[in-house]
Amino acid sequence: MEGSLKETPxxxxxxxxxxxxxxxxxxxxxxxxxxxxxxxxxxxKACWEDETGRPGGVTHWLQKQIYPYILDDExxxxxxxxxxxxxxxxxxxxGQRHIQLGYRFRKGxxxxxxxxxxxxxxxxxxxxxxxxxxxxxxxxxxxxRVMTHMLLRDKYRMIAVLDIQExxxxxxxxxFENTEIPCDSPLEYEGFIRELSEKCIxxxxxxxxxxxxSLNTMEENLQVAGIYSFTVYNADxxxxxYTYQWLDKEYREVLIAVEDRTVEMEKDPLTDxxxxxxxxxxxxxxxxxxxxxxxxAIIYFNIRKFSGLNDVYGYENGDRIIRSYxxxxxxxxxxxxxxxxxxADRFQALVDAKNLEPAALGxxxxxxxxxxxxxxxxxxxxxxxxxxxxxxxxxSQMCDLAKMAKNKISNQxxxxxAIYQEDMRTEYEQKNLALLNxxxxxxxxxxxxxxxxxxxxxxxxxxxxxxxxxxxxxxEEPMIPSVFVxxxxxxxxxxxxxxxxxxxxxxxxxxxxxxxxxxIPVAVNLSRMDLxxxxxxxxxxxxxxETKVPKQYFRYEIxxxxxxxxxxxxxxxxxxxxxxxxxxxxxxxxxxxxxFETVRDYTFDALKMDMGFVKKIGKDPKRDxxxxxxxxxxxxxxxxxxxxxxxxxxxxxxxxxxxxxxxQGYYYYKPMSEKEFSKLLDK
Length: 683
Hints:
With 683 residues, this protein is of the alpha+beta class. The protein folds into four domains: 5-138, PAS domain (Beta-Lactamase, 2-Layer Sandwich); 154-264, Beta-Lactamase (2-Layer Sandwich); 266-421, Alpha-Beta Plaits; 438-682, Alpha-Beta Barrel (TIM Barrel). The protein is built from 25 helices and 25 strands. The strands form four sheets. It has an eight-stranded mixed barrel with strand order 18-19-20-21-22-23-24-25. α6 runs antiparallel to α7. It is elongated, with a radius of gyration of 41 Å. The termini are far apart. The relative contact order is 0.05.
């Protein structure tokens, strides 16, 4: 390749890169009637003496110089048909004098596009038919057409060529607004990137964009893979992918393409609905245009125990459930204006508030899906945030508030939705504080173990206690477990707190034992995470063997939902405890969907009825009958019964009348500090 690449104009540069030549024309002059080549024009060779003037030379020349290099079979067939002597004469006889053909031609390592113009005429002396065929290199017009087509078809926002050596970029075409970037003019690359960054890129992404698009970063990646790309969000929150690819590595010329990837980046591939980014952007646009005319609400949905459905029915059926759930929302009377999947089984919808009737959500959220021959019940729940007029929150914050409301649902079987109230924010912040400051709180002994006495139903005497915990953070009001324990359970940090409670209770019991003071059993709660932690379970067993305190003074409570997912190792742990003489209570009995299977498969020393049954005593005859049945069933199975959260005399008398063994609640004793509990025992 002769000459300096950088000295040629833009289109010449592209032509030389793509074709290796400067656009010279080729051609030949032939006698069609006699099938003789009169003359050949070729920049590389003046002529082929052995071809000119020979009968049959036209066919021979085409077979040697043209046909082998035509890329497309159909183009070659068309070319051959046109250059048949009989076909050319037939066309001439019809009165047509001009023919034009187009084809792609391989020349060494290059591919070029040619247009062949054929002009036919009659020789004035011998009246033979002759023609002049001129090959014109149309690679650049072809590239221009293709680039324009790419911009329209594939949503390319820009096509440009970068000369790394000269730090210069030539923009072929772009659709960027509010910029002063010219086309087909040399631009300094750093200034070009700076202009894009300031005018076209989302503010929080600008620094990352400048780093990703820098010459050093780009060339380093090109040297490794030959192609380099990254995706960035523009000022309109649309996604754009910048791709750099060698155009001519020898001359360090790079093709840059900027492609609009908004649709792909904002679509959830599993469901074809929006993903989180797509939902946020669409919701922002709707609110911006209509905030003063309508009231909207954001709803945050999730499917209850979805991971369990995946485990039981497989991930393929789990995906089916997700798709059916979103289709159900989309086709409901909510008529969502935007609907997106933000996590595995979590979805968000923007709705017109007039279409939202919370009381009707139960039918929408609970339905059946057929898997094989089985009808599977799907339970959903949701939180609702009504967007106020002139709301200053961004969409992500609104979604967080809807999620907060969802997390406040206490019993999704009774009411599967919750509406955001302002006091939920304080509780949410406290939960996050629990995760952030757990280690510090344990070190500074901010967690305080409290003891709530349990009385015998027949005598009213204190016979045991349950260890509870309060969090005294920075001198504020103590936080109760319902505020921070769920977050600690979800994060896995609950094991550290349970270890602290267990060791505190053990120390308390050992101190009283060695001082010869009155002792009663104290129960410690174990979470589902504890029953998956082999180190914790082994430590409890070891310390029980080492202590001199009789084992009947130690108890552990397991909530029913934790037992339903217990591992083999967890079952063996509970058996070891009972073998040592430690009693095991099943807590919150009656809340799960596998209640009777739980007591059938494992022997517990006592059942603790869920507080929901106790609170309804005297208000619902059916629930009263269930309470009586639970007490009777437990006794028949050799288990005691504990009722908690007792708040009044009516509840106490009902339970005692029907044989409940142990009673716990504010009606008898509130949770108290270790010091107060010791005084109570010492009376």
